[in-house]
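[Q] Does anyone have a clean structure-token version of this?
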Amino acid sequence: MSERADHSRIVVNGRDTYVQHSFGFRGSSFATRTFYSHGAYRARYYRQYRYHNVPLAAYAPVRYYPPAFYAWTYNAWATPIAYSWAWAGAPWFAYYSAYYTPAQVYVGAPQWLTDYLISTSLSESYQQQVDSGAPPEQLSGTAAMPPDVKNMITTEVQRDISLENYEGQAETKGQQIDPGSSGIARTFSDGKSHVFVASADLDVVDSAGVECAITEGDAVQLSAPLAGDAMAAYVQVVWSKGPDCHQGTSIQIALDDLQEMQNHMREMVDQGLADLRSHEGQGGLPVPPAGADGSAIPAAFAAIAPPADRNASAEINQQVQDANRVEQEAGGQTKM
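[A] Here you go.
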């Protein structure tokens, strides 16, 4: 990560590779991040805040749906549906087949969105390995995701649906949304256990001080409150597809990394909700009831939010080149 004189920053870290610029709206600080991948730009927006004196940015949707739509996606559907995913024959799915199997029948949107989230994370992880120029490494010690872990992720998805519904109703009333209530500050104050799905590969340290790694798609559980003025939290690995940070390991993760994991989950849930809206009644998906198909309401900040930064590709490439040069120079000095 590098920060420039205008306080914009460039972050290069697997999936979380972006150019960020800050902007203000109604006295609050926002950030726009431009992600660039395979010739396509996408902009995402975040509310900036501080927690335990750590600067954080919580994902902010650019539009909200009618409350009836959130109720339909939160609760069980009237009739369970059989659903076949279009990616069932994709190389990434074959690669992770011993590790992950989608449901064949869905009783509601939370279960469907859970598979949407997991499959997107795993496909992105696979693509990053392919993009690196080396074939994906053979997985070892891989165990299938236990049903209880998948259920915990589904519970977290329901919480995200409920949170987005709350934010949407606040927007319609012209109320300011507290960034902490949308970010991880909320997870440390509600007294509940929370599950995070890793959004990028991450080197961490376990409770014994030994380094290990988690990879995108791994799941960790937060059960204990944050101690004192700590800038990192202990979580337990509840599902891992690698032999490094294995299941049951207690590891320490920095608050900003936990926030990015939550951002990824909220973004995927938000994206999945949009897919449910655009494909309602198609491919076996049910049609929402009357009142749930009303028009989306733009978030107030969206009217002045900057578009995607079309210079992001060049800036990210320059950052990668600079990082590679520094690494090579450091390696040369070590050899001397």
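[Q] Thanks! Anything notable?
[A] Residues 2-60+301-335 form one domain.
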